[in-house]
Amino acid sequence: MVLDSVNYNLADNDKSIFKRLWIYQSERFPVFAHGFLILAFSFSAVCYSALLRQQAYFPSISILLAAFASALIFFLLLRIADEFKDAEEDARYRPYRAVPRGLVSFRELAFLAVCVLSIQAVLAISWNTGLLWLLALVWLYLFAMSNEFGVKRWLKAHPFVYMWSHMLIMPLIDLYATSWDWMIVSGFPPKGLFWFLLLSFFNGMVIEVGRKIRAPESEEEGVETYSVLWGINTSVAIWLINLSLTAISAWMAAINVGFAWPVSILLIILISIAMVLGFKFMRSPSPALSKGIENFSGIWTILMYLSLGLLPMAWIVLRGL
């Protein structure tokens, strides 16, 4: 069975660049799987900024789609950057992945990166040149992060610092997504945006930790999961702490747009589910519960963004009809 899989993968290497990139995205950056989360993230970021400015109607669909396209490209760039950053480890421990097995080359990925960077720049210039400054800021941080800030060995020896230093890219991407509202309208971020940006940071931490908590039988050589680095109990505890910090940020952000009560109810329900899931995994770690934590992290993140951007905006619009 493994041999058949390898033969199939090698056969893919002879296909056209477009077919190979399509296979690459399905394996390493499934657009449809990630798309809904990024859609919720970007649409809600623009709507939240508009709500802070007391706007009582949805931003234009063209603005929402431009913010979505820009955010989608950022996450694709993060994936491409990881391919370069993890090249040595992937070649050694994960030869089945797209780049080590020869499906796509680093040169092709670099060309793809240049193409999508150009799209981001064109979108920004088309709407407001002020967006370019923020875009360049995110690009600069992404470049520094991809090169491990020049201290790769030190960061590898300090996994917690490694995690939060890389997660700072999330509020930067979020700041850029919100700027598709405030940069175009006023040129200045609205008061109260801080809590939404902080939410993005902790949401990123929730997903990062949640996807790297595994049952002992699911651990792979060469894959540094937090359940190995910190142990099962500590990694789950850190996941729950990040959920709690996200909840506090979400509640504060909800107060700023007059949506605190609905968000409070949602948070109580979700935190209760997370605690049950986390404690069950602590008592009896299994692949199914590990997958449950990972899936819950994604659902949590989607609901956090929807409850602060799209849903309160929809409520205000419907109430005004």
UniProtKB/TrEMBL annotation:
Which Gene Ontology cellular-component terms appear in the entry? membrane
**What are the protein's UniProt keywords?**
Membrane, Transmembrane, Transmembrane helix
Which Pfam families does this UniProt record tie to the protein? UbiA (PF01040)
Q: Membrane-crossing residues?
A: 29-51, 57-81, 102-125, 131-149, 161-180, 192-210, 230-253, 259-279, 299-318
* Signal peptide bounds: none
Locations listed in the record: Membrane
Q: Which GO terms describe its molecular function?
A: transferase activity, transferring alkyl or aryl (other than methyl) groups
Bilayer topology:
Multi-pass membrane protein
Q: What is this protein called?
A: Uncharacterized protein
Q: Which organism is it from?
A: hydrothermal vent metagenome
